[in-house]
Amino acid sequence: TVLVHTTETTRLRYFMELLLEKGKPLMLVGNAGVGKTVFVGDTLASLSEDYIVSRVPFNYYTTSAALQKILEKPLEKKAGHNYGPGGNKKLIYFIDDMNMPEVDLYGTVQPHTLIRQHIDYGHWYDRQKVMLKEIHNCQYVACMNPMVGSFTINPRLQGIDSHMLLQQPLIYCH
């Protein structure tokens, strides 16, 4: 897919790059076909070599345990209970279809709770050893279509993200 930049994509890219430089999480929200995934993929591909991108696809069956395994794959143990990407790199988790996982009986979405815990506190727990893992130099970029999936994004998680709303198609394919 080829992304043809327009004034709107140029504006969005500028703000997205600012948020990424500051290490802030962000979420693009828009209907199907507006180009969220292609736009984010193009922007992340153009980042400097200081960044590593890990794609994290969500679906209805994504659990917090499965998500944690995916999130831990690109991490290295540093010192003590500290983990992060290799070298002095920054890791960006690109989560597509953020609102797809199942809502449990208590009204929570387990993968969102794990992400919120990491963003709020900078850690999560090792599920086997039941010990704290401090996670450094990682941030989140997410996309979601508000018209499909569980329609549930925890307000506490929404309050952390910087939202960008996409209302019209962003890409034009040849």
TrEMBL record:
GO terms for cellular component: dynein complex. InterPro entries: DHC, P-loop_NTPase. One of its GO terms (biological process) is microtubule-based movement. One of its GO terms (molecular function) is dynein light intermediate chain binding. PANTHER family: DYNEIN AXONEMAL HEAVY CHAIN 11 (PTHR45703:SF12), DYNEIN HEAVY CHAIN (PTHR45703). This is DNAH11 isoform 9. It comes from Pongo abelii (Sumatran orangutan). The lineage of its organism: Eukaryota, Metazoa, Chordata, Craniata, Vertebrata.
